[in-house]
Design a protein that fits this description.
Layout: E1 12-13, E2 16-17, H1 40-45, H2 50-56, H3 76-86, H4 98-103, E3 114-119, H5 128-135, H6 137-151, E4 155-160, H7 165-180, E5 196-201, H8 211-218, E6 242-246, H9 247-259, H10 261-267, E7 275-282, E8 288-293, E9 296-297, H11 298-304, E10 313-317, E11 326-327, H12 328-331, E12 335-336, H13 338-343, E13 352-357, H14 362-376, H15 382-399, H16 407-418, H17 426-451
Parallel strand pairs: 3-4, 3-6, 4-5, 7-13
Antiparallel strand pairs: 1-2, 7-8, 9-12, 10-11, 10-13
């Protein structure tokens, strides 16, 4: 019986699926995808699972050009060394060096250890991971198997955002294919390595993208962040050592093993290896996901997305809605890498690039952003539970012509008193957009307060 394809209507951008536009640069994860070739046989034809065979010393056919000889396999230490050399940094938002994180796993721990993929993609503006899971699921499975081998882990879970249930079903089909082919389970490919992988769907709570809240949810409890320390590397899922990485991070691993960490590093910039998938959304002519080398100029990324729609470029949020906004004059001189964006005062984050033209009112934009964070706060920490509501209510009255003379200072104060005072970073995620907007567009907020109107001309 033929599998039923998922409804793609939610993933379309002006008539084109988000990653099938043919405008990637040096694509590694999205390379060769057309929306139908997601099955195991298709992935193997593209060289899939050759990296897993390589580390296990099992040879195999297929493979992309430029791959290294299979040889006699790789030790776990060699795998981690290659990932360290690659300068692969976590693609979920924090940008922590992946190889270094893997090295934290205690190899001699006598009990169970766990590997978790964070596919709880809920950041406004981000839609990259769901395309990977829907159209290239086996690259994530292979990447997780390699990571499990490197850290001596036998069990893994992929926690998938609950609002993309059809993608979860697609991933379950891919898992079944991998198990049937002997690529998951006991003694994989006849080796001594065993690894079982399971899919788990959440229910759409943004907070479960925070790694410890994800673990709580995975254990069947309310998804609320844990105090740290202890960190998941020593006390994670079910109280056991656990490593958590993002979907795109795992998807990058097979290319690294096949081509070498040095080759991956040379695809990007020093300390920023490889390619990165950016979800370019907002006021652009051709929104979508674009896989480009890390360090690609923002101007080039904007060009790939067809340029600004409906006006001139005014501002960009470079790393998802939680990242501070940057004005056009700053963004047009930046490269899209972790260090350059951080130096400019923002974050590369999840890779959601939200473009705003000069018809956008910054007060109204911030009001919409802060409503999201107020709604998604889990309520565990008082500064976040109460502070996000304060921020939204103050911005709402400014937007509706009821602003008070001291409201801007009040926003500064509330944002300052949220940051760094909560268990997880959701409070910071709510505060940083406020700080960024007031830093770069304070005159718009002041105009609202003084004149009770918007200084931005609205389209008819």
């Amino acid at each position: 019986m033929a599998a039923v394809l998922p409804d793609l209507s939610r993933f379309q951008a002006r008539g084109l699926e988000t990653c099938f536009h043919g405008r990637h640069v040096g694509a590694q994860i999205y390379a060769g995808l057309d929306g139908t070739n997601w099955r195991l046989a298709d992935y193997v034809a593209r060289g899939g699972y050759s990296a897993l065979r390589r580390i296990l010393g099992k040879g195999g056919e297929g493979g992309e050009g430029g791959q290294r000889d299979v040889g006699a396999g790789m030790t776990p230490e060699q795998v981690i060394a290659e990932v360290k050399l690659s300068a692969l940094r976590g693609r979920g938002g924090a940008g922590f060096p992946t190889g270094l994180k893997w090295s934290f796993m205690p190899r001699q721990y006598p009990g169970p250890k766990y590997l978790v993929c964070n596919s709880d993609e809920g950041e406004p503006g981000t839609c990259k991971d769901r395309d990977i899971l829907a159209y290239n699921p086996h690259i994530v499975i292979e990447g997780m198997a390699i990571a499990a081998y490197a850290m001596g882990i036998r069990t893994g879970y992929n926690y998938i955002h609950g609002e993309i249930f059809e993608v979860y079903e697609r991933f379950e089909q891919a898992l079944a294919e991998a198990r049937e082919a002997g690529l998951l389970g006991e003694r994989i490919l006849g080796s001594d390595f065993s690894f079982q992988l399971h899919a788990h769907h959440g229910f759409g709570a943004y907070i479960c993208g925070e790694e410890t809240a994800l673990l709580e949810s995975l254990e069947g409890k309310k998804g609320q962040p844990r105090f740290k320390p202890p960190f998941p590397a020593s006390f994670g899922l079910y109280g056991k050592p656990t490593t958590i990485n993002n979907t795109e991070t795992f998807a990058a691993v097979p290319w690294i093993i096949n081509h070498g960490g040095q080759a991956y590093l040379e695809c990007g910039k020093p300390n920023n290896g490889g390619t990165k998938i950016f979800s370019v959304v907002g006021d652009v002519e051709r929104p979508g996901n674009f896989e480009v080398p890390v360090g690609t100029p923002f101007a080039r990324l904007l060009e790939l997305a067809g340029g600004v729609r409906g006006g001139a470029l005014k501002a960009v949020i470079p790393g998802g809605s939680s990242a501070p906004v940057l004005p056009a004059r700053v963004m047009m001189d930046l490269t899209m890498d972790y260090d350059a964006i951080a130096k400019a005062g923002s974050m590369l984050g999840s890779g959601a690039v939200i473009v705003m033209n000069d018809t956008r009112c910054m007060v109204r934009s911030l009001l919409r952003l802060n409503y999201f964070y107020m709604h998604e706060s889990c309520g565990q920490c008082t500064p976040c539970r109460e502070g996000t509501g304060w921020l939204w209510r103050v911005i709402e009255r400014i937007e509706h012509g009821k602003g008070r003379p001291d409201d801007l200072e009040l926003l500064d104060s509330v944002a300052f008193n949220i940051k760094g005072r909560t268990i997880c970073a959701l409070g910071d995620a709510a505060a940083m957009p406020v700080e960024g907007m007031l830093k770069h567009f304070r005159d718009e907020f002041a105009h609202h307060v003084v004149h009770k109107t918007c200084m931005v001309a609205q389209p008819a």
